[in-house]
Q: What sequence folds into this?
């Protein structure tokens, strides 16, 4: 352990003048919107910082630098992606695999979540959306984040994988428990471990089942993995289970988070809501705008793979860096009126799905889930508002951000 | 006007073919087609092409104005 004074001396030797030093721990829940305000403040103060949080890491706050980080995996490795944990005990596949091996895993999985595959399941996705909205409509209120935003992406995800969508009854509590602990709450660690065990155990059973098939199943992702090879080798149970678990952890909570912010916006901005009802062809553009303005990725970490001078920061191999995606997506150097939600915004090149080789593999599916949610909800519940005595709170930026709850009310149509 | 997609930069975000449906489409893996070649942009597609290029998170699309 170093003393604070020693630490200060060490930082002043490493960090050049002109790169401000901050101490920012973004893991605690804050009032909704506070993370984006912080990101705005950091971005306009300096393009780069050194954050003395944890072992210390570099922070890039503006669009160009964040994109450059994503586009150069030879410098910015995905071996570690949380900047305060440079040597993780876990390895997410393909999330933490660098080129050239990355492409082999990626190709295998990405076709399953490509537009053609998403189009194939869209009619059923609408049916699921219609059913969930119909179940809620007569109640006149709900906690949107808990009752709808988590359930919809989970059911659609299970359907595209090829397992019963009713198993969302199992997955919703598992994912909730996992992320309650992932943010660092020590009291939740046991539940988090149990949830992870539940998720893996579920896939073990499916895997066992598919291994006994005499012929591969159609439209069944686990069957595809069982019958695939990489470098002429079958994938093996451990790798398949890693892939399936990562998809669950990367795909469900994230979509829930984005949906919560988008629906809070729609609840509080009747003009935008009414415009989407009148012009539903704008729904996809509004979804993109919500990904830009309400970015749930506060920042994204990478590990430096070679000594480099990056915009005045002397990066050493093994250093961690943090691209402030939420700062980049509201960078006034790139966007006009960046803090304004513009339903039909043009030139929206946001990095909400990251960039470079690790661009979110589920992006096409996530967009479709969000489009289905808006379309089906507005058809049945065109007017709704936030009803909360307390300010809305959001989960800290250490994991993906999400509103902790979003109480909505509406008049029940008789 | 002409448009080109740089294959070495494109990462398959899919923004371009969503915004310029009349001009661009996608393959089985979700990557834009055609790519790596110069595409003639009809006059009535010019605004869509510009928006597609400006909306690419990778900056993979170049527009050559006449």
A:
């Amino acid at each position: 352990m170093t003393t604070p004074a020693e630490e200060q001396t060490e930082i002043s030797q490493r960090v050049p003048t002109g790169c401000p030093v901050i101490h920012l721990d973004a893991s605690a829940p804050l009032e909704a919107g506070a993370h984006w305000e912080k990101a705005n403040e950091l971005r306009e103060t300096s393009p780069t910082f050194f954050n003395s949080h944890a072992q210390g890491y570099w922070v890039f706050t503006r669009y160009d630098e964040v994109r450059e980080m994503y586009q150069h995996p030879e410098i910015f490795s995905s071996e570690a992606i949380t900047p305060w944990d440079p040597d993780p005990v876990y390895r997410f596949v393909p999330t933490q695999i660098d080129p050239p091996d990355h492409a082999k895993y990626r190709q295998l999985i990405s076709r399953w979540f490509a537009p053609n595959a998403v189009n194939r399941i869209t009619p059923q996705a609408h049916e699921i959306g219609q059913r969930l909205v119909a179940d809620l409509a007569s109640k006149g209120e709900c906690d949107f984040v808990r009752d709808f935003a988590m359930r919809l992406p989970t059911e659609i995800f299970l359907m595209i994988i090829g397992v019963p969508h009713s198993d969302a009854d199992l997955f919703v509590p598992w994912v909730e428990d996992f992320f309650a602990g992932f943010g660092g709450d020590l009291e939740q660690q046991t539940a988090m471990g149990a949830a992870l065990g539940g998720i893996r155990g579920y896939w073990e059973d499916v895997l066992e089942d598919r291994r006994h098939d005499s012929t591969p199943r159609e439209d069944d992702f686990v069957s595809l993995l069982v019958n695939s090879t990489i470098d002429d080798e079958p994938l093996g149970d451990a790798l398949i289970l890693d892939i399936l678990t990562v998809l669950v952890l990367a795909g469900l909570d994230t979509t829930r988070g984005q949906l919560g912010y988008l629906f809070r916006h729609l609840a509080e901005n009747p003009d935008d809501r009414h415009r989407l009802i009148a012009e539903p062809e704008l729904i996809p553009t509004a979804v993109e705008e919500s990904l830009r303005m309400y970015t749930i990725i506060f920042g994204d970490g990478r590990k430096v793979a070679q000594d480099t001078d990056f915009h005045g920061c002397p990066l050493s191999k093994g250093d961690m860096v943090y691209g402030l995606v939420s700062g980049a997506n509201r960078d006034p150097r790139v966007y006009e009126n960046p803090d304004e939600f513009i339903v039909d915004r043009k030139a929206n090149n946001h990095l909400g799905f990251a960039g470079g080789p690790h661009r979110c593999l589920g992006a096409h599916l996530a967009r479709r889930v969000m489009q289905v949610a808006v379309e089906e909800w507005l058809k049945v519940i065109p007017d709704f508002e936030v009803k909360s005595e307390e300010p809305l709170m959001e989960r800290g930026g250490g994991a993906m951000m999400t509103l902790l709850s979003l109480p909505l009310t509406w008049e029940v149509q008789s | 006007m002409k448009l080109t997609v740089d294959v070495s930069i494109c990462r398959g975000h899919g923004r371009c073919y969503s915004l310029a449906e009349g001009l661009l489409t996608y393959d089985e893996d979700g990557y834009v087609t055609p790519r790596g070649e110069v595409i003639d942009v009809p006059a009535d597609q010019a605004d869509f092409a510009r928006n597609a290029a400006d909306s690419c998170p990778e900056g993979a699309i170049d527009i050559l104005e006449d």
Notes: Chain A has one domain: 4-382. The interface with chain B takes residues 67, 71, 107, 110-111, 113-116, 284, 288, 346-351, 353, 355-357, 359, 363-364 of chain A (CB under 8 Å). Residues 248 and 408 of chain A are 27 Å apart (CA to CA). Residues 4-382 of chain A form a domain with the Cytochrome p450 fold (CATH 1.10.630.10).
